[in-house]
Amino acid sequence: MKNLSFPGLPRVLIVDDEEGVREGLRAMLQKEGLHVETAGSAEDGVRRLETRAFDIVFLDLNLPGADGLSMLGKFRRGSPPADILVLTGYGTVANTVEAMRKGAADVIEKPFSGDRILAIVRRVLETRQLKNELTWLQDRVRELTSTELVGLSPAVREVQTRIDQVAHAPDTTVLVTGQSGTGKELVARCVHERSSRRHGPFVAINCAALTEALLEAELFGYEPGAFTGASREGKDGLFAVAAGGTLFLDEIGEMEPTLQAKLLRVLQERTFRRVGGVQDVPADVRIIASTNRDLRQMVQTGGFREDLFYRLNVMTVHVPPLRERAADIPLLSHFFLDQIGRQMGKALSGFTEEAMETLCEYTWPGNVRELRNAIEHACIVCPNGMIDELHLPKFTGGVPDGSDEIDRTSLVLDGADRSLRALESQLVSKVLEDTQWNISRAAAILGINRTTLYNKIRLYELGKRPLRAKVVV
Question: Model pTM greater than 0.85?
Fold first, then answer.
């Protein structure tokens, strides 16, 4: 149990009237690094639970006075309740069914082996650890708002720091860079919401979605009859609509050079003219621009105005791709699951370990947007309960790139056992070790699918993969 990442020292209570059983279990579990207390009666055990919390309770069914079965419910009190492992020397189907119905995690018949006890305790503690992590993730998800960048990795913390810095300068132009799908507009909204302009409007436009003429009319507005088809009343542009707030120019690298020159004048003079107009109109807006292209390189090739680039590049916020912030994938996944599950009216409680490993191992070329789409797909396919690997889109299975290839020419096998089971167990173990427990790549090397590999890990009792690094809050 010593390699379990468990909060605090796991506490175990043994309730049995046989002193030999109590002391034998105590010695074995203390050797594994657990805190153990004992009680000789159900009443004594309940009193101990009233003063302190336990993770596991070994409860004998045959106790003097009140028997364990009738008292089982009282041992399940607390938040979270202890896992009850029932001990019985008179195992019957009826007793087992009744114990499980009342909430027992397992029923163990006497006499029992130490290996069986340790295997059950390890399984129970691992399950409690996963539940603790899930609870933490769900609590963190509930704390997040729609305009907060989700993540706790160092890369996201750096972005959040930049957002906080620029939010205190409400007129400073901001350039947000990053690949498609990384959340550049969300960063822009975060800057707006944390600045003194948050009470004004946030207006966004995609510069790549409109022709030059239409984009100019949308940005600056136009006078009555300014061009063929123009409204007789004229129209306010987005610079006027966003007055007092923020104007977000998405994909600024796609703007035509002539329109770039007009935008440069707005940034320099803080005024603009409507199409067909002759009067300057004050531009009381903060400009936030975004791009997935290298504007500096575009300047060198003549694709983007150098003077406009320097006007935009006052403060730059770079949003990292998801593969560089893989530690945030569990938090993002639970955030999207909670969000989409509520929208669909589904009671989805989380992800199986296999599903989460699949999500964490995929490279996500489409970044956060692709992850959200995958979670939405899983929410649609999964009827209820936990999302499993089979509910995820097929593309998340991962494609081996050969970087984790093992030496196929030789394999040193230990021990005298040359049975097929022993040889296969050693081969699977070695491939897992050489790929650092990357399930997708290990399965590809072995020529089997992930589900088959998981079954072999359980069959040969190869244990759990090394725990992922925790994100410290």
Answer: no
